[in-house]
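Quick one: structure tokens for this chain, please?
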Amino acid sequence: MIYEVVHRTRYDYDGPVTVSLGQVHQLAADVDGQRCLRCSLAISPEPEHKRERRDYFGNRAAVFSIREPHTRLEVTTSALVDATGRPERFGADGDRPWETVIAVEGRDAAPTDRPPLEVVEFALDSTLVTRSAGLADYARQSFAPRRGLAEAVTELSSRIHADFAFDPEATDVDTPLEEVVERRRGVCQDFAHVMIGCLRSLGLAARYVSGYLETIPPPGQRRLVGADRTHAWVGVHTGDGSWIGVDPTNDRLAGRRYVTTAHGRDYADVPPLKGVIFTDAEESVLTVSVDVVPSG
């Protein structure tokens, strides 16, 4: 499973932008069992300053600044990724009772060995995901005492998939988690946040994972160029610093058809592209094109 991934983002403004400052979280890396064979970033107009760095969570990120007037900004990332090594099953850790991998003291149990901070912080509240008794109650239907972690997590994923309808019109990036739970509608970002909130409300560590999923057209139809999307799923801590991807939107593990670009506490930590512009323009048009194509 080797994929050629191309992600194009274009902003067209109705007036000149004098300064554009941005940060990109679209750079694949050697994470989650995948290998990044090649990765590049192209920005137009050519930035005055562009630098790649590792963010707080260890993700590859790039920052840039453009100080020449422009009415269009284009950001394109291209990568060749070998996803063959991505895990498609929990393995032995999945048989452990879920209480043994709790990262913070919850309402059910506390860990015997305190995990490191880089695990604990994914069990606490974050900007877009707040723990609650309601989320804990919803999760507990799958997390019976001493049940195996894999069984409990996969059942929770299946329930979210069944109980929540995929509806791109129901939410936006600012919709609070409480509203998503009440409406039972949303997109992959929302479903990931719901599952993260459920797991954290039981004291388990869960992180938000951003990336891509290979989409397969219906039988007899051609694959449409640029029709793929960015995707989001959940990284579940399975103990001893290990994580596995779970996708409640599609009710499956995030295995060999997935490509990871970044992970954080929630979407606010790793939006694919964010920034600040200085302009008198009143409107802009955003165009996004994503292709995830098997190579060879």
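Confidence is low (pLDDT under 50) at residues 107-111.
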